[in-house]
Sequence to fold (179 residues):
Amino acid sequence: MEINAYASNKVNGTNNNLNVQKNNETLKMQDFLNLLVAQISNQDVMNPMDNTEFIAQMAQFSSLQAMTDLSELAMQGQATSLIGKTVVVADYDDYGKIETQEGIVQKVTIHSGATSLYVNDTEYDYSNVMEIKGAEKSEEDPTTLMLGNILEGINKLNASMNSNIPPIEEIPSADEAQP
Fold:
């Protein structure tokens, strides 16, 4: 006689219905629903659980899931705002010693919920960021140079046009005009 048919699995491994959670996984809505089904199917017939208790559990789990999603989006937004800024990142070397690198964040990737950033052509996890120093501004920014050249050309054009045009005579105001 099998006592718990819900999570049964054979010893030889041919029919394994039990999903083992890995370290980097979190509980999902499907996990909650599986627990809920297990609770309903294994409850005492003479003393059934209250429906409001199930609804309260579902509401709590839904709000927890929404907060988790919101915090993940906030973290991704913070990571993308680091593009172009100088950061200090740390990672362990092959001998277990902490190694720090300083550089400009070149790009940020978000894949399967993992946020990574690239510093000095090396990928680091967002959690490896130790310090944010700010954006480095180069003195020879191409956009600034181009706009400066355009402004200089406009000024030269205005100066050459003004030298060829005779001065405009002032028109007297209505008070100064003679009848």
Q: What stands out?
A: DSSP finds three helices and five strands in the chain. The radius of gyration is 34 Å.
